[in-house]
Design goal:
Elements lengths: L1 H17 L5 H23 L8 H24 L2 H8 L2 H13 L5 H18 L14 H24 L5 H22 L6 H27 L2 H7 L3 H13 L5 H19 L9
Length: 282
């Protein structure tokens, strides 16, 4: 889960850099093409059939994941990278609740506390305490709602991955994500294609490569831990994203942003110290 967080934070850097000219749908398509090629190569090396057992659920996971990408990439291109990542990390809350409702996973007190701290951090970004000088204005509501929608869709995709862990290999689950994404995005890109430049092609490769690495770590992590705890661990992506935002895009964090990040980091530490919760059907 930690290696996945690092990979996804670097993916965010590439997505934000591409947002200056390329539309979100083309970035999602580029990610799908590269990730699909890498998935096929990994499946061949492992001598696995790509089609899996629960194909309906595999396709649904791909649809949910692709829809989440549209929202998450749109939020990254609109908001500062660190703040966009913090809002995205509402998804552990949604994941924990959905895993409880759909998979019968119990919530430990530590995970509940981590969820509360995570939500408090996001609330602080949208309702700043004006600790800085000049005071930070609240983030744009439309962009915040886009990020929240991405978090909910991400949670649904994560719960489906958790369910697929009982029947399908992680590489098969990963393969379906870009496969469905390619089918959903290619027709939209063909309506109004924009030819990428050389540097943009490099960034698109980065999006696909870092996403693939992130998905591999994420899928294995979700299949080895209860969904609520596994996704709470990925909070560490927030300080990574804030660092890259400062380094590459000169997004200087305000005192409100730093306090929000500290709340999220506290949630990460608490989740790391908690013990896995037993699940009846595992």
């Amino acid at each position: 889960m930690l290696s996945s967080a690092l990979s996804f934070s670097l993916m965010g850097v590439c997505v934000k850099a591409l947002g200056q000219r390329l539309p979100v749908v083309e970035v999602v398509l580029g990610r799908a093409v590269i990730s699909l090629a890498l998935s096929l190569w990994l499946l061949r090396r492992a001598r696995l059939s790509p089609w899996g057992e629960r194909r309906g659920l595999l396709v649904l996971r791909g649809v949910l994941g692709t829809a989440a990408l549209y929202c998450v990439y749109g939020a990254i291109q609109t908001l500062p990278l660190g703040e966009a990542t913090v809002i995205q990390y509402l998804h552990p809350t949604f994941t924990a609740l959905l895993a409880w409702l759909l998979l019968g996973e119990r919530l430990s007190p530590q995970i509940l506390l981590a969820i509360v701290l995570g939500w408090a951090g996001v609330w602080l970004l949208t309702h700043p305490l004006h600790l800085g000088d000049p005071p930070l204005a609240g983030l744009p509501q439309a962009a915040v709602l886009l990020a929240v929608a991405g978090a909910l869709l991400t949670a649904l995709a994560y719960v489906s991955v958790r369910a697929l862990g009982r029947s399908d290999h992680p590489l098969v689950v990963i393969f379906y994500f870009p496969l469905v994404g390619l089918v959903l995005t290619l027709p939209l890109v063909l309506l109004n294609p924009i030819l990428p430049t050389g540097p943009e092609l490099v960034l698109l490769v980065g999006v696909g490569l870092f996403t693939q690495l992130g998905q591999l770590g994420l899928t294995k992590g979700l299949m080895g831990l209860p969904a609520a705890r596994a996704t709470a661990l990925s909070y560490v992506q927030v300080p990574f994203a804030s660092l890259w935002g400062l380094w590459f895009f000169h997004d200087r964090p305000s005192p409100d942003s730093l306090l929000a990040a500290l709340l999220v980091l506290a949630a990460t530490v608490i989740s790391l110290r908690s013990r896995p919760v037993a699940v009846a059907d595992q």
